[in-house]
Amino acid sequence: MNWLDTILQGVLLGGLYALFAAGLSLVFGIMRLVNLAHGDLIVLAAFLILVLVTALGLNPFLAALVAAPLMFAIGWGLQYFLLNRTLGKDILPPLLVTFGLSIVIQNGLLEGFSADSRRVVAGSLESASVNLGPVTAGVMPLMTFFSAVAVIVGLNQMIYRTSVGRAFRATSDDPVTAGLMGIRPQRIFALATGLAMVVVTIAALYLGTRANFDPTSGPSRLIYAFEAVIIGGLGSLWGTLAGGIILGLAQTVGAAINPEWQILSGHLAFLAVLLFKPRGLFPRAVD
Amino acid sequence: MTLANPPFTVETRTRASQLFAIAAILVLVIAFAAPFIVSRSIIQDLFFILTMLVLAQNWNLLAGYAGLISVGQQVFVGFGGYALFGCVSLLGIDPLPAILIAGLFSVALAIPTAFFTFRLYGPYFAIGTWVVAEVVRLLLAQWKALGGGTGTSLPREATRDMMGVDLMRDLFGMKAAQASDALTYWLALILVIATIGFIYRLLRSKQGLGLAAVRDNEQAARAVGVDARRMKAMVYLTTAFITGVAGALIYLQKARISPDAAFSVVDWTAYVIFIVVIGGIGTIEGPILGVILFFLLQTILADYGSWYLLMLGLIGIVVMLFAPRGLWGLFSDRTGIQLFPVRRRLKGGPLGHSIKGGPHG
């Protein structure tokens, strides 16, 4: 067994998990909302891309470009009309409404697309690989990883360098005071969820082209995303990337030892972090 | 005139609750007699309703009273089921004591689980419990003696020779299968009574008052000396026990277990959450109303497959948004009727009239 190869694959897989997690992290950071339908929204976006690819014959990357504004609109509307009503001191309503949403999306997709496993065909890119000295890496996994880095750099630039980002941070700190300064928290929240859905679309593109998915794949994507966020520490997007990499590494190393242990060893790595560093490896937020 | 004011007393009983108590006793008598009156398939339906009610009452105690929103309660259902199968198939223990042993195993699992998940705040606790359920499912799928990933069945003799079955065959002249169905049904009925009785007593006790205080304002409750963490841990362990017993009972009746079914988040947590939310979270009556509605919906929409779950999800969302205290909450707010009153009211004294407190507790 080639350990170097295993480690590289693990790191690259971590990029995918970081993409799953970035949207979750963003939404939680700004409005303290944990969206239990996050994984199902990733799968929804993957089906959207699939439909665009099969119906219009688009290239998957072009399809994702078309799907992104649609998903932004879905996220914006979802937050503005539904989830904003649930925000408040009580954590029960947002959790239960997003849990209900998760069940609704899953079963809606089951009705529309049946329970079959699907895959988005990306042509010759799927099998293309690059020789990196002692190891070879697939082009798709490499693109996934660099997309994750690009998404995190982009989000960080936006949050810390632009006026929208300032509004995000202000609303995150204190929505009432931010409201006094002319920011409308309701719209900021909607914008943030819309943005998270754009990230979700990117995640869905790589989910769909790299592996099979079906309408019930959502919950396990949510769990991976959640584990990456907690391992990395709340409130830090770079931490989320690190969390994704640790999770990916744990899974590939586990799978290298025994294929049945892949998912389990990811979960165990998460529990180990929780045991020794309950606030994650790179915590930033206070809560 | 030496007429003193009558002394203060604190009461929770209401007229409606007294009438209800009489009606409830009648319903229970009929329920116990059911195996002699109705067919086996109805008994199996009733068994399903009763076990779902136990799960719902437990989740309601966790989420509605202790503020512990778990989406991982399936771990105790599945673990209880597997503990029962382990005891019966591998150790040859009779199923009846094995049900209780399964409950104890669930508590033993809940201690390390709580150690991990209690480190997570609010919403993250929810997903944390889910991760734990996944870990336990994946570990049990590795246990080849109990069928690994594909699962296993209980040996036929186990349920046929179960304690009490012989007695029922002699007393009532039932067939073995009929007798074991009736037995599991009675056990489920007893479990429902014990669970509701326990929760009702708990909520009327000093601990229950502390629990309500923690839920309404944790800081304030701590300031007056309520040990919030201990209360939550106690509730978590208790619900683990009852949920484990319910899981063992469910899988004793099914007689077949597999990791995917036993740890199904839809069957043992999503349904339960919808039952509690639609019926009314934070009340004892809510889950009872919820489980009846749930069963009716399921019977009506049985042929529609995933549309049924989709509808259930939508109803859950609508109820959570527009009637966050559920259908029972709507009814109770309009009429003031409480069947299991836990609100403390001041009687007697110069005030004379009852003082209405918060919504409950």
TrEMBL record, chain A:
Q: Give the record's membrane topology.
A: Multi-pass membrane protein
- One Gene Ontology cellular component annotation held by this UniProt entry: plasma membrane
Q: Which sequence ranges are marked TM in the entry?
A: 6-29, 41-58, 64-83, 95-115, 135-156, 188-208, 228-249, 261-278
The listed locations are: Cell membrane
Q: What is its main location?
A: membrane
Example of a GO MF term: transmembrane transporter activity
Q: Which UniProt keywords apply?
A: Amino-acid transport, Cell membrane, Membrane, Transmembrane, Transmembrane helix, Transport
Q: Does the keyword Cell membrane apply?
A: yes
Would the keyword Chaperone turn up in this protein's UniProt record?
Answer: no
Give the protein family. Answer: Belongs to the binding-protein-dependent transport system permease family. LivHM subfamily.
| Protein name, entry field | ABC transporter permease
Q: Which species does this protein come from?
A: Pararhizobium antarcticum
Q: What is the lineage of its organism?
A: Bacteria, Pseudomonadati, Pseudomonadota, Alphaproteobacteria, Hyphomicrobiales
UniProtKB/TrEMBL annotation, chain B:
The reply to whether Transmembrane helix figures as a keyword in the UniProt entry is yes
Name where it's found: Cell membrane
Question: Which CDD domains did the record assign?
Answer: TM_PBP1_LivM_like
Please report the organism this UniProt entry assigns to the protein. Pararhizobium antarcticum
Coiled-coil annotation: which residues?
none
Kindly provide the name given to this protein in its UniProt entry: ABC transporter permease
Q: What terms describe the molecular function in GO for this protein? A: branched-chain amino acid transmembrane transporter activity
- Where is the major localization of this protein? membrane
Key words, A-Z? Cell membrane, Membrane, Transmembrane, Transmembrane helix
A Gene Ontology cellular component where this protein is annotated is: plasma membrane
TM regions (residue ranges):
20-39, 46-69, 75-93, 100-121, 183-203, 233-252, 272-297, 304-323
Query: How does the record classify its membrane topology?
Result: Multi-pass membrane protein
Q: Which domain of life is it from?
A: Bacteria
Q: Looking at the Swiss-Prot or TrEMBL record, what is one Pfam family this protein matches?
A: BPD_transp_2
